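Lecture notes, unit on protein representations.

Consider one protein chain, 371 amino acids long.
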Amino acid sequence: MKSKNSLMHAGNILITALLSVAIVSAQPVIIGLDGEPNEALLENHGARDISYYNLINAVSTDLPASAIQNLKKNPHIKYVEPDILVHALGKPSSQPPQQLTWGIERVNAPSMWNITNGTGIKIAVIDTGISKKHPDLNIAGGINLVGKKKGRNYNGDNGHGTHVAGIIAARNNNIGVVGVAPDAQLYAVKALDKYGSGYISDVIEAIEWAVLNNMSIISMSLGTPQYSQALEEVCNTAYANGVLLIAAAGNSGDGNAFTDEVMYPAKFDSVIAVGAINRNDTAPYFSASGPEVELAAPGVEIYSTWPRDTYTYASGTSMAAPFVTGVAALYWSENQSLSNSELRELLRNTALDLGEKGKDNVYGYGLVMAN
């Protein structure tokens, strides 16, 4: 799979500008195919660095802007869409670190620890990577899909993925914090760079990796406001393969429950969209609302693991989504005969109703709860 980090694209732009006579400007795209891949057809339209997916009938490539419209007209092409940037949906705050795990208590996680701690559940954290050497985290494996170090070097270089991982499964070892499901298996699937950004094509490959490596749950604290058919197809395929997909709803809320700001992939039917609450069980202003919001979870001033063996606070729906991931891991560990759709229904039915009675656009079915 080709690399699409921002530095590489900046380099391409620079070369194009200096050698405009010899090089045609190209754009990163995802192409949906109708039938078998026709490499000659794509190359005749100027495609280069073609990468094929396994779960969806599509490729990612760089395509001259002048060829996009012509290729769209071909009957063997379903769609041509831009390879969209996605972003991590949470930022650390500047407050000094201290022991504070109000979110773990609010979702009632300790009530299940005498039954299960999430044993046997494999969780793919698609994010900026996870700090390998943090004493409060036990990483079972992973992959890096970004940049020149593509491969097994999935060590977190941003902090966002490490923070998310600690919420899900920080170890119960008497130091720092403890996660919702401390014995669940964490897999670091690095699809976002050190700036917290990445391309849809890398997220697609990350989801494919999770399916092919038998992950139980995919946790995605990332999003984009732009629709991608390819991303929807791979999410639908992963869900059809029995994986539970959970994603942050987004941080573009406007305080109006009747507007829809939910981002992709959370917006897809195959994905559980998670909004945030504060200590008062109220959604913060930033938490995206919309009919796709399915559950709510703590997402304000959440204390969790951070690189270089440290801990910090962060806020965002990025922090809310891993609480749902952890609770789902507890339930699934307790009853591994459940299908992903049955587990999803259980999460809805055990949620604590907040806001308007019944499902609403701000809290969905309510606050996720371990019971």
